[in-house]
Design goal:
By secondary structure, this protein is α/β, with parallel strands linked by helices. It is built from four helices and seven strands, in the order αβββαββαβαβ. The N and C termini lie far apart (36 Å).
């Protein structure tokens, strides 16, 4: 009812059921501005949501599942981007937070998802990935910022490997710009 009224500027949906499987097709409220999912949710659903919700401003996945997915997350080599740029998602997403089980999934798998999303989210201002080390993400940003200038403006919250107490999943660190 609220979604169809067209009068609300902020529409938030929070799903706290750990047993509920959520698919992009389950979300019918296209005016959602904030979505928080506590249930295990896959990469294909994440991409489907970004494709479907143009007004989304904030997105939080507390249990992103990095199990095999059908989406192609490959990124062309840097020299190929001059002719074939990544097509951005049709969304206003400014803030995204992704948490995953770092004991079950590899950092490389998460970095693949993060880097793919970074190129397709031109309005992104803050990217929160607390279990992900900074070096692969910052190396990617350095490499692609010239072709995708919005990357230079993204504030990240992630793990700093330079911290002597670095251990995945222990605590947040904020970088400059966050």
């Amino acid at each position: 009812m609220l979604c169809n009224s067209g009068t609300s500027k902020q529409v938030r949906l929070q799903i706290d059921n750990d047993e509920l499987t959520v698919l992009a097709s389950d979300i019918t409220c296209l005016s959602l501005t904030n979505l928080l999912l506590h249930s295990p949710t896959g990469v294909d659903t994440l991409i489907g949501i970004l494709d479907k919700l143009p007004n989304l401003n904030g997105l939080t996945f507390y249990k992103l599942a990095l199990d095999p997915y059908e989406s192609d997350l490959s990124i062309p080599e840097l020299d190929q981007h001059q002719e074939q740029r990544m097509v951005p998602f049709n969304t206003k997403l400014a803030r995204i937070a992704l948490n995953y089980d770092y004991e079950k999934y590899t950092v490389d798998a998460m970095v693949a998802v993060v880097t793919y999303l970074l190129l397709r989210l031109p309005m992104i201002e803050r990217f929160i990935i607390p279990q992900t080390p900074e070096r692969p993400v910052f190396d990617f940003v350095d490499k692609f910022t010239e072709l995708y200038p919005h990357l230079g403006k993204v504030g990240f919250r992630l793990k700093l490997e330079s911290d002597p107490d670095f251990e995945p999943g222990t605590k947040f660190y904020a970088c400059a710009g966050c």
